[in-house]
Amino acid sequence: RPFDLDEAMYRRINEVFEFKPPNYLERLEIWKLVTSHKAIPCDPSIDWESIALNYELTGGFIKNAVISALLDGVGRDPKSPYISEQDILNGCKKQVRGALQMQDFHERVVPKEGGLKDLIVG
Known about the structure:
The chain has 122 residues and is an all-alpha fold. It is built from five helices and no strands.
């Protein structure tokens, strides 16, 4: 996300690589990889193929969706948490909302030297 860097930091970067978002099969593999650890107990009936097909998330957003789902599972049963498909869907929806907000991020207004007072119309 090149717009997250200030000008001084951007000048110090010699190479820039752009990664394409993962396709359906790559997303499916990411979902399986992120949820394969025994510390992430998932309901075996979760339809990962449907989730990978319906939510075009990148790896970081997938990881965040799983963390959100795990927090829901822990909130429901702290002693024996598990992740349900609904937990995953809720996590995906939160991440999609965040991704949509990031799409307009390059159009943000950044104050120059004057700061906030230059943005206020008086």
